[in-house]
Structures are given as C-alpha cells and as structure tokens.
Amino acid sequence: MANHLILGIESSCDETSAAVLRDGNEVLSNVVASQLVHADYGGVVPELASREHLRAIVPVVREALLRAGVSYGDLDAIAVTEGPGLAGALLVGITFAKALAFGLERPLIAVNHLEGHIHAVLMDSAFAGASPLLALVVSGGHTHLYLAEQHPGSTWTYRNVGKTLDDAAGEAYDKVAKLLGLPYPGGPWMDALASYGTADTTLFPFAQIKHKATGNTAAKLARESTEALEARRFDMSFSGIKTAVRRYVELHQMQPPIAAREQSLRAMGLHKARPDEANVARALPHFDARTLNLIASFQNAVVKNLSRSAFRAAEHYAARGVIVSGGVAANSELRRRICAAAAERGLSVAFPSIALSTDNAAMIAAAAWPKFLAQDFAPSSLEPVPQLRLG
Ligand code: KG4
Ligand code: ZN
Questions:
Q1: Do residues 344 and 369 share a domain?
Q2: Is residue 137 domain-resident?
Q3: 330 and 192 in a common domain
Q4: To bridge 33 with a disulfide, which of 9, 16, 62, 369 should be the other Cys (CB 3.0-4.6 Å)?
Q5: pLDDT in tens for each of the 391 residues of the chain?
Q6: Boundaries of domain holding 331
Q7: Residue 377 in contact with residue 76, Cβ under 8 Å?
Q8: DSSP codes joined into one string, 168-231
C-alpha cells in the first residue's frame, strides 16, 4: 500500500482546516483558517463559529488540494472529525465530507479529535514500535491522559487514565489572562510574560485528587487488588488555581491597574495581537512586578500539575514514552519541565511541531491512516458526536 492520498477535514471548534496527506505521514498541504471574530467576545461563540466554518470550508478545501498539487479524483479517502466539539461546527465539516465521499465514491473515515491530537505527534516522531505510550492532550477544551497502545496491523487503542475534573488547562490560562487584562487568546501571552516574573511556589499548592481506589499508605497499597490498581486515576484540577488568582487580585486591589492596562493595550491595538517579541516589548511597560510574578506563579503551578500527573501515570503503566499534544503543548515551560522530567527517568518524549500543536486537519488525516489500512470506514449516515469520548 503506497501512494495513497487522504483528505482530512477539521471543524470542531474555531479553526476550519483541510489537509492532504500521502501514506499517513507525508503532509502535502495543511491549510488552517483561524476565526478571528471571537476575539471581540473573549471566547468562542458557537453560532459565529458555525457561520464562519460555512463561509470557509469550500475555499479552505480547494486551497489544500491546490497546494498539494492534486485534484479531487486523486483522493483515496475523506477523513473528518466526528467529535468532540461544537455540534454546529462539526456538522459543517461532516456534511461537506459526506458529500465529497459520496460524489467521489470514496470511503469516509470518522476521526476522534483527541486521537487526532495524539497522531499530530506520532506522525513525525521517532517512536516507531514503542508501546504503550502515555499521551497528555492539553488544550482549551481538553486535559486528558491516555495510555495509547499499538496493535499488529498498526491500529491503535486508547485508555483514558486521567482528566481534569473541572477546567481544561488552556481554559484556565485563558480565564486568568482575561482576569489580568491580557489580550485574547491569553495562553500564549501568559507564557511570554511569565519569563519576566519570579514564581512564588507557595502561592498555589498542588491539587491532590483522591479517589476511592487510591490508598496512600504502603500497607493499603499492598492490599489493593490488581483491579483497583487498574482503576487508579490520575485526575487533575485547575479551577482552584484560577480561583486563587482571583482572590489574590481582590486581596491586593489589583483591579484598577488591570482595567487601566486593558485600556492601554486596546488603545495600542494589542488586544488581538500575537505575543511576538515586538508586541511583548510594547506591552511589558504596562505590567508591574506583582502581576508578572503572579503570572509566573500561575504558570509554574499549572505546569507542575500537568507534568506530575503525566509522569505518575507513565510510571504506573510502565509507558515506554511520553507524548504531549494540543494547544498548550506549545507552552515553553511545559516543554522545558516535561523534557527535564523525562530525561531524569530515561523516558523518551515528543511534542508536535508548533504548526501541529493547535487544531489542524493534518492530524485528522494522520489518525485516519491506520483506519484506512484496516478498512474501518464510517457509514454515510455519520453525524456529529459533540461529547465523543476516547478510551
Ligand atoms: O488545541 P487548541 O488550538 O484548541 C482547542 O482548545 O482545542 O488549543 C488552544 C488553547 C487555548 O486555550 C490557548 O490559550 C492555549 O491552547 N495555548 C497556550 C499556549 N499556546 C496556546 N497556553 C499556554 N501557553 C501557550 N504557549
Ligand atoms: Zn483540539
């Protein structure tokens, strides 16, 4: 089986994307249209997202074929995100993919968005054959830990071994950024500004999540049945840290300077800007040391939580490597800490390229490849599953 082309389509949230992949890992094109309309609302507005997907889907798919230098007739299969995501947004991609598959008489492949994030790493990492792997998928909508296992015939199965019990890590980043008057989306800005502050490691304690099956004494551990051990969860929580930031802001009466800063950044046209070097340099004089230290402390706490849970799970399940994916995988401190922890334990670790960290269709086409080989096709009645789970 060689030289097969899969068109991937992704429309689960606020990115309309189409990509053409050859044999599951050679990216011929990966077009991503990000919706800017949401910046004015400080979060994704579902109705606007659907409308923007409708507007973008045809030109984005056309552009992906053009850049790949292929025509519709060259495609061997159409892959599309089935869920999880916004119902109306998913529907646009699925309807378009179904029409294409029907019209071209090609198979349709349904992909779980979270599996897509995992394949964003697997498609170009050096993990060939290593299994099981511990995957941390961390974005604005998800914070999940999976044990990913590869089987003969190269199909993958996943087991969810932990997740956030409240906010996703990226969501906590964005909410705290909003609270501090930072531009949208706030995660990348928090990351860029954190290096100018000093983290106070006592501000936000580690959120210890206890489950019934989790004993904390050696004797109790020894009594645990294999089944109970199997059920051990590595769950996380981020809303406590977010609330602690809010309390800190109130306690230190930081609201007036925050409001002033928000106005200044808006006046400078930075409220929708990316935190590149020049923009950060322009914004920096509007931040006092207390705010920068608070940002650094928040980042330190979130990253520590993510890293600790991931490595505890990796150790428990004897994972042979760790992969990190999703929008927050772009975070510099998370990369630094996870690389250091992996090196300490002699574990290999992989992140997606920055282009594949955020939502894109290349990862959807990559995740579809093992399904294409196994002829695991979707029915023409495929519908969005907004709450679709993995594992
Ligand atoms: O995967 P993604 O593009 O979309 C979904 O949420 O599915 O992830 C976007 C999230 C946002 O919450 C954004 O603030 C966060 O990823 N993010 C970051 C960084 N870059 C993106 N959070 C922290 N540090 C970053 N460098
Ligand atoms: Zn995503």
A1: no
A2: no
A3: yes
A4: 16
A5: 579 999 999 999 989 999 999 999 999 999 998 887 777 776 787 888 899 999 999 999 999 999 999 999 999 999 999 999 999 999 999 999 999 999 999 999 999 999 999 999 999 877 767 899 999 999 999 999 999 999 887 789 999 999 999 999 999 999 999 999 998 889 999 999 999 999 999 888 766 666 654 445 555 555 555 555 555 689 999 999 999 999 999 999 999 999 999 999 999 999 889 999 999 999 999 999 999 999 999 999 999 999 999 999 999 999 999 999 999 999 999 999 999 999 999 999 999 998 898 899 999 999 999 999 999 999 999 999 999 999 8
A6: 169-350
A7: no
A8: -HHHHHHHHHHHTT--SSHHHHHHHHHTTS---TTSS-------TT---SHHHHHH--HHHHHT
Which residue's C-alpha comes closest to atom 3 of ligand 1? Answer: 358
Domains in the chain, number: 2
Mutate to test the pocket of ligand 1, among 358, 363, 364, 388 (most ligand atoms within 8 A of CB): 358
The structure tokens 């959120």 sit at: 207
- Let me know whether 109 and 187 are in one domain: no
Residue 254: both structure tokens together? 């930081």
Kindly list the protein residues that place their beta carbon closer than 5 angstroms to ligand 2, a single-atom ion. Answer: 139, 359
Read off the CATH number of the domain in which 102 is found: 3.30.420.40
Ligand 1 atom, smallest distance to 168 CA: 12
Distance 77 CA to ligand 2 centre (A): 22
Q: What is the DSSP letter of 318?
A: T
CA distance 386 to 329: 23
Print burial letters for 266-294: b (CB count within 10 Å at least 16), e (below 16): eeeebbebebeeebbeebeebbeeebbbb
Task: Please name the residue whose Cα sits nearest to atom 6 of ligand 1.
Answer: 140
The answer to whether position 152 is within a domain reads no
Residue 42 lies in a domain: yes
End-to-end CA distance of the chain: 28
Across 153-170, b (16+ Cβ under 10 Å) vs e yields eeebebebbbbbebbbbb
Neighbours of 33 (CB within 10 A): 19
- Dig out the tokens for 46 from the structure: 């579902």
- Which residue's C-alpha comes closest to atom 16 of ligand 1? 327
